């Protein structure tokens, strides 16, 4: 009986022990399952936190000489060695050694790294980090980007495969078929082929260079878009351009805006807007243009202009002005239109002025309808009833030409209804009239001799040594010659049956003092100030009364608009 009881106790203990072991095993299994769920849940949420919307595909392994799994807490790592190839969508990556974190979808690549995007963009480097979820790459070392239009070289490159934008800030070099571009910082869109360069930008080719702080460049059209002040230097010219301008590195055509300047060996041209074609050397300028001819020491200004080096023609329109600088003097010439001609074959230089011409120089001034100035022989031709003034003399005719010697008036030829008026010390008007007239001047621009041919008439006053009027001579003659000394007539020669009379001072009448057609027009004489004033647009001042009236009108309009159903009632209108 006792023996049987012990057996039952032993069996009970054994059953209890088995139950405990089973419970322990179940507990271990449950703990393992719980822990696994925690790990999986953490991994899921960790990956979800790092993965942007859209669930990008996992980086896949294509090939490798060897693969080593590296299991770390909460991470699944794989190490690939030798001839490594990976893929994500249309993007391929090759290298010698890679570490792929399959949990975070991040790849580390080492040795002869090559990234190919959609078979259009190839990037190579020494090392790279590739973030699969964001589809972004950071490539280091000897980096090169080739998109079949350019080759970009740098030491570090960030590339976003979503936006197709490459970025560097450690200095880069871009080479295309004709140009080399360098900068410290840059953005490149491999789809639009647009480059944004920043800091120390330089563009070089066989024909010239470009320098700027910032620049946008299209590798397709080879056009540079200036977003900062830019300097372009070619073999034949130098261009200073402001933001908003464009430059084609192939055609060399510049579309310049914002007060830009082009300099060549012969001239300098500045304007608010300018189109310049160096191969044809044609320039079109608009807005406050400023053209300087270095050889001729001439300055052309106006509202619009056009220059062609092949034809040697420069045209200026609107508020046109020529300033020709001599050794001790400056000639000012203004007209509606100025045309400069520089013919290298004939070695002639001419200037043409059309409509409302005014001219001023220290020793003479004048006005006419049109004018031509032969720079080569220093002759100026005046057309359409010109009037000239020099010192106390006035000359007018149907046409006049003057010859400059040592940049001073030397000879004046007058044709058709020629009329010369000269004032003496007593402000009397000595007058000479004829069909043709030649006037010679002294070195100090005073009248020295006058030759008259055809229908000659003259009035000259006789003044003694005490500067007292002794009478007036009035003569008609086919030909006559008058010599002057100290601004007085010193000798007279009449040819062809002269008819004259001497009138004493007491017998002088007002009608005797003027030849037919006499007009003293000194009030019309151009001055430097009047010429400069004409080319300067006037400042429009709006009277206060107009401003006040416009304000009142706006008040009325506002009240009309605010009326119900926009109906106008006479009683509702305020009095103006």
Automatic annotation (TrEMBL):
Keywords: Membrane, Signal, Transmembrane, Transmembrane helix. The chain crosses the membrane at residues 29-47. InterPro entries: LPS_export_LptA, OstA-like_N. Residues 58-213 form the Organic solvent tolerance-like N-terminal domain. This is OstA-like protein. It comes from Arcicella gelida.
């Amino acid at each position: 009986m006792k023996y049987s009881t012990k057996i039952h106790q032993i069996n009970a203990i054994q059953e209890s022990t088995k139950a405990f072991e089973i419970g322990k095993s179940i507990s271990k299994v449950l703990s393992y399952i719980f822990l696994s769920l925690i790990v999986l849940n953490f991994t899921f949420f960790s990956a979800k936190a790092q993965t942007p919307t859209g669930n990008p595909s996992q980086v896949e392994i294509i090939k490798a000489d060897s693969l080593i799994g590296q299991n770390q807490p909460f991470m699944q790592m794989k190490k690939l060695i030798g001839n490594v190839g990976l893929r994500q969508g249309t993007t391929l990556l090759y290298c010698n050694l890679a570490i792929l974190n399959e949990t975070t979808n991040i790849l580390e690549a080492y040795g002869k790294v090559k990234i190919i995007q959609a078979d259009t963009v190839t990037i190579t480097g020494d090392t790279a980090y590739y973030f699969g979820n964001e589809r972004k790459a950071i490539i280091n070392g000897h980096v090169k980007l080739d998109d079949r239009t350019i080759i970009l070289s740098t030491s570090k490159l960030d590339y976003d495969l979503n936006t197709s934008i490459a970025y560097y800030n450690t200095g880069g070099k871009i080479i295309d078929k004709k140009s080399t571009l360098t900068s410290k910082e840059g953005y490149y869109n491999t789809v639009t082929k647009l480059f944004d360069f920043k800091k120390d930008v330089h563009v070089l080719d066989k024909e010239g260079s470009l320098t700027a702080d910032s620049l946008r460049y299209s590798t397709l059209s080879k056009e540079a878009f200036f977003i900062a002040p830019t300097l372009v230097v070619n073999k034949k010219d130098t261009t200073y351009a402001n933001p908003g301008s464009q430059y084609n590195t192939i055609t060399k055509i510049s579309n310049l805006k914002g007060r830009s300047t082009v300099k060549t060996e012969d001239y300098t041209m500045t304007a608010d807007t300018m189109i310049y074609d160096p191969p044809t050397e044609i320039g079109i300028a608009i807005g406050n243009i400023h053209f300087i001819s270095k050889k001729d020491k001439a300055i052309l200004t106006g509202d619009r202009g056009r220059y062609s080096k092949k034809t040697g023609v420069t045209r200026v329109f609107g508020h046109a002005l020529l300033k020709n600088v001599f050794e001790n003097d400056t000639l000012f010439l203004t007209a509606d239109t100025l045309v400069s001609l520089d013919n290298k074959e004939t070695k002639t230089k001419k200037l043409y002025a059309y409509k409302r011409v005014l001219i001023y120089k220290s020793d003479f001034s004048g006005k006419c309808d049109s004018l031509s100035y032969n720079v080569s022989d220093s002759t100026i031709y005046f057309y359409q009833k010109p009037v000239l003034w020099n010192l106390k003399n006035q000359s007018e005719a149907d046409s006049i030409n003057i010859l400059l010697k040592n940049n001073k008036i030397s000879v004046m030829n007058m044709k058709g209804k020629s009329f010369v008026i000269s004032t003496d010390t007593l402000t009397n008007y000595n007058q000479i009239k004829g069909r043709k007239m030649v006037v010679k001047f002294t070195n100090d621009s005073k009248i020295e001799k006058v030759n008259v041919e055809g229908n000659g008439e003259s009035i000259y006053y006789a003044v003694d040594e005490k500067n007292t009027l002794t009478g007036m001579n009035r003569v008609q003659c086919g030909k006559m010659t008058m010599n002057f000394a100290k601004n007085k007539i010193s000798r007279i020669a009449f040819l062809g049956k002269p008819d004259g009379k001497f009138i004493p001072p007491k017998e002088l009448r007002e009608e005797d003092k003027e030849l037919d057609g006499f007009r003293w027009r000194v009030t019309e004489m151009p001055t430097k100030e009047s010429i400069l004033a004409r080319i300067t647009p006037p400042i429009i001042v709006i009277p206060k009364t107009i401003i006040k009236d416009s304000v009142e009108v706006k008040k009325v309009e506002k009240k009309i608009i605010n009326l119900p159903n926009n109906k106008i009632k006479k009683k509702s209108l305020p009095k103006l």
